[in-house]
Specification:
Layout lengths: L3 E5 L6 E5 L4 E5 L2 H7 L4 E7 L3 E5 L3 E6 L2 E5 L6 E6 L5 E5 L14 E2 L15 E2 L11 E2 L5
Parallel strand pairs: 3-10
Antiparallel strand pairs: 1-2, 2-5, 3-4, 4-9, 6-7, 7-8, 8-9, 11-12
This protein binds zinc ion (2 copies).
């Protein structure tokens, strides 16, 4: 049974699917993602690009920094994907755009060095000061002051 996951933008012009287990699911607390999504934090799904496709529509692109492409719906403005030369072969989708986000619980937090002081979650997941990947977590669970 293929593990097909589907999602869409707010207005439904852009729909997508992929057929693979996610590489990872994580909260990102960096300032760039905060500005791109107009939210204190966002939740990404890392997916092999080869297993991903747009079923309908095609997003517009904003190059937020060299080598970084942020895709969004030109009709309703939903953020659809993050792609970076730093992560070749991978596309980062947003948990909130999926038809079934409940099935995609985050497994960690990245860039907590840029986390807002008034935003916190109570989970015991690993927290990375900067990027995740092969790095060691800075700590687990909420910040201690
Ligand atoms: Zn849309
Ligand atoms: Zn980020």
């Amino acid at each position: 049974m293929p593990d097909v996951r589907k999602g869409r933008c707010f207005c439904g012009v852009i729909t997508f699917e992929f057929n693979a287990p996610p590489n990872w699911v994580a909260y990102c607390h960096c300032e760039s993602c905060r500005r791109a999504t107009s939210s204190p934090v966002t939740t990404y799904i890392g997916v092999p690009y080869s297993e991903f496709r747009y079923v309908s529509g095609s997003p517009k692109t904003y190059q937020s920094s060299p080598g970084v492409r942020r895709r969004f719906c030109g009709s309703c403005g939903s953020q659809m994907a993050f792609e970076s030369d730093e992560y070749p072969g991978e596309i980062h989708l947003f948990a909130a755009t999926f038809d079934d986000p409940e099935a995609l619980a985050p497994r960690g937090h990245v860039h907590t060095g840029e986390q807002l002081s008034w935003f916190e979650t109570a989970d015991a997941l690993p927290r990375f000061d900067r990027a995740g990947g092969g790095n060691k977590p800075t700590h687990f669970g909420p910040k201690r002051s």
